[in-house]
Amino acid sequence: xxxxxxxxxxxxxxxxxxxxxxxxxxxxxxxxxxxxxxxxxxxxxxxxxxxxxxxxxxxxxxxxxxxxxxxxxxxxxxxxxxxxxxxxxxxxxxxxxxxxxxxxxxxxxxxxxxxxxxxxxxxxxxxxxxxxxxxxxxxxxxxxxxxxxxxxxxxxxxxxxxxxxxxxxxxxxxxxxxxxxxxxxxxxxxxxxxxxxxxxxxxxxxxxxxxxxxxxxxxxxxxxxxxxxxxx
Length: 232
Prior knowledge:
By secondary structure, this protein is α+β, with helices and mostly antiparallel strands.
């Protein structure tokens, strides 16, 4: 049987080396595996950095969002050739990409539909293995003047303090608010607790003339809107 020759990045033709390929053809020419290979620098004795990167991506169905859910321990334990330093580098790079999406625009985003809320909060909530609850505070033009986390909990839920939400809304002189949280399970069907907190915040908002416009539950590439379902 003919043995396959394993080549390190330094042994490849220049146009095929990820770093050199980036310089010659631009970053958009690189595959996800090649970009990860640049991050980790080298593979192991049995495979190149790109091959190792391809194996990592294959384990997540070539989905970067799924890769972003892995922690340092999972990367180190599941992939020979990935030590703690390389795992941290991968996680840090994915987090930078996530934060880039979250970066506030110079102009305030305006909420015209549930999809607008989803586009703002999905990058924040999509990769989490636990539940977080966020609130968007809006001005009279339905432009977001603030977004902030109100709770952080476990896999099955989190504790939400209505009084603190209303205090933040009053301090920001908000004209309206939108509640949102994620379901780590991916199932976007509202729970009894979701219905309860929605009704409580709705009543509090009515009392203070700061209406609750919607409650969005975010899952895996999907969402549930109380307003769209005519429940608000």
